[in-house]
From TrEMBL:
Keywords: Glycoprotein, Leucine-rich repeat, Membrane, Repeat, Signal. This is Leucine-rich repeat-containing N-terminal plant-type domain-containing protein. InterPro entries: Leu-rich_rpt (IPR001611), LRR_dom_sf (IPR032675), LRR_N_plant-typ (IPR013210). It comes from Turnera subulata. The lineage of its organism: Eukaryota, Viridiplantae, Streptophyta, Embryophyta, Tracheophyta. The keyword Glycoprotein applies.
Amino acid sequence: MAKPPILVETGLTLLILVSWCCPCFCCPTYQKEALLQFKYLLVGNNSSQVGLNGLETWNSTSDCCQWEKVTCSSSTTSPQQISGPGFANFSEIVTLRMNANSFSGSIPLEFYSLRHLEYLYLHDNMIEGELASNLGNLSNIKELELTYNAIHGEIPREIGNLVYLQKLLLGSNNFSGLVPPEIGNLRNISTLSLDGNSLSGEIPSSFEMLENLEGLGLSENFLFGEIPTWLFNSKSIKFLLLGGNNFTWE
């Protein structure tokens, strides 16, 4: 008999496919516990936090199929174990949208274990801390948006491992240090936004290898050096934002 999954939506869309063990639309205990662990991972004991967007209905006394943002479906998926509290019973996470939810604190390390994740949207929150080097484990990620948070520290060089990235949006944070030259490894990237941080140094020469780059935002940082001519000769770039730096012309 086909085993339907649960599709869970947090913020706008959190797509989680998990196995099912009964024919009725009732929530298995182990899946309810996994979802409650996931909620705790996000908000801790502060269940009254503003901006939960439905997570306040997630509790141990009700059927998780009746929770807001949870839909019980009859679709199937291949099972896959994902490590970490709250994720152990989820078969697969492909899209995770939790933007504009007033989340604070650092990005949980468990997020970096979601190796099948393709779309991660955490923008417009109050996330702090640094990006872990484990970011390089998200080997299938295509879109990563972390804009309008308070993330600080250097952008990890392991970001160059995310070779399927098409959109990387890290603007309006507190990133510092040099722009990682490893970003030049992201040959599929079309949109790169690093605006509104405290990045320094020069534009890496490796950026010239980004042949699919259409939009590049580097404005409002502390970058310096000569603006390379290839930026203006590029056949792909349509949007280029460099203001608010200390550039000179070649």
